[in-house]
Amino acid sequence: MRPVPRRWGFQEFKDGRERMKPIEVGLLGIGTVGGGVWTVLARNAGEIARRAGREIRIAAVADKDLDKARAIAGGSARVTGDAYDVVRDPGIDIVVELIGGTTVAKDLMLAAIAQGKHVVSANKALLATHGNEIFAAAQEKGVMVAFEAAVAGGIPIIKALREGLTANRIEWIAGIINGTSNFILSEMRDKGLAFETVLAEAQRLGYAEADPGFDIEGIDAAHKLTIMSAIAFGVPMQFEKAYTEGISRLAQLDIRYAEQLGYRIKLLGITRRTPEGIELRVHPTLIPARRLIANVEGVMNAVLVKGDAVGATLYYGAGAGAEPTASAVVADLVDVTRLHTADPEHRVPHLAFQPERLADTRILPMEEVVTAYYLRMRVLDRPGVLADITRVLADRSISIEAMLQKEPGEGEDQVDLIMLTHQAREKQVDGAIARIESLPVVKGRVTRIRLEPLG
Ligand code: NDP
Ligand code: HSE
Fold it and tell me: Which of 66, 70, 88, 98 to mutate to test the pocket of ligand 1 (most atoms within 8 A of CB)?
């Protein structure tokens, strides 16, 4: 007598034996990352099935560009221009959202969840801004929303924070988490290329966001930092409270002066637990050149995590691009496939902490943050100027750690003066800068870049 399939998810094959049926994936968006997912899944199908316990098969693909989608997936998967067609398909177990943005993608994700489907996404903008609502909906429906690819591309940092470091009280995280900005800074420093030239190259390589302003103004890094902060400290997503400053106004001059003082400038996302609240900030930052993280170049990302038990740990890898990001998406697909049949209560919570145990710890406004500073100003080259400036700083208890005064150019009576301060509260430094700028011996604005020793 032929065996009758008894268990859910099993299928009887031609040889009469019962095996797990393939998990059916619906792919929304087959652009840079979606294309990478298609390639990686096809190339490593055998290995992936051995790990997941069953085949993972892209059964349907939706993309606005039907010709492109057919050229890649036609013949192997059903191709459609209507993403809802995939979301509502009863045969689809997991929806992979790789469209991007916070409007259509949000509606599609919520629709997939409402249909009882698990979701995998690389969309950090959506999760950082609407994650609380999305996770609540998923919780209600007992489905998973997996998002490893949303932070630091191919680096499994979500897995590390949520599971590997779960014994720890996380103290702080500091990361280079935007590949495009790091690529721009590296190329400007090493090859002396212009900002716009390198940005265009990052776009050509598929690193940049649809709106590259997200990359260069620090918004993309703040999205990723918001996600990591929520997981590290067990707080809701609070992107709107993140301090965000990008690299678009960074001058070549400061990159050079920083080097002369033994530092590199990186766009860093920093989140730290302090007695007053949680720091959540993205800005260009001077880091001592001898630190490993200061030497992370190009599109590579790196995240430093300090836990109370483990100490400092460092995670490094490609932060953007088709296949590195696909690596993280496919890892999520395997995870979801393995946990597909598990009782929802026994899965890892979306934000690592049980949803009803999230804390309402305050996010510190930037003016309350304490850090060190690089200050550059143009001053008259005459006696007493330095005394005037140091007095302003001393009056606010800001002490100086190092100083660099450049020689005046031929026939010039002004020089660049650079100061590195010890730690001070941002509010005090704001006050000092305003006062320094009002001194008649100081010409123009003071440039301020924050400095982190990361010791
Ligand atoms: P792409 O623009 O390359 O791909 C998006 C694809 O979705 C395009 O083919 C686009 O078609 C299609 N699309 C747009 N709207 C719809 C719609 N309504 N229905 C169906 N298809 C649609 O983006 P990426 O692959 O670079 O990024 C995708 C996501 O991954 C984003 O959330 C991004 O932030 C994230 N991400 C990207 C990384 C990268 O390195 N690129 C790394 C990590 C995360 P069309 O081109 O015709 O508009
Ligand atoms: N635009 C992003 C970056 C893609 O450059 O890091 C990866 O999230």
Answer: 98
Global pTM? 0.96
Give the per-residue pLDDT at 407: 86
Asked whether 269 lines ligand 2 (CB < 6 A), one says no
- Look up the CATH architecture of domain 368-451: 2-Layer Sandwich (3.30)
Residue whose pair of structure tokens reads 């989608």 in the numeric block: 69
C-alpha of residue 223 to centroid of ligand 2, in Å: 11
The ligand whose atoms approach the alpha carbon of 206 most closely is 1
Which pLDDT score, from 0 to 100, does residue 409 have? 86
Look at residue 113 and tell me whether its pLDDT is greater than 90: yes
Architecture per CATH, domain 157-319, reads as 2-Layer Sandwich (3.30)
Domain spanning 11-153+325-357: which superfamily?
A: NAD(P)-binding Rossmann-like Domain (3.40.50.720)
Q: Which of 27, 38, 40, 63 to mutate to test the pocket of ligand 1 (most atoms within 8 A of CB)?
A: 63
Residue 5 clears pLDDT 50, i.e. is over it: no
Quote the pLDDT of residue 345: 87
| Lowest mean pLDDT segment, chosen from 8-22, 170-184, 254-268, 370-384 | 8-22
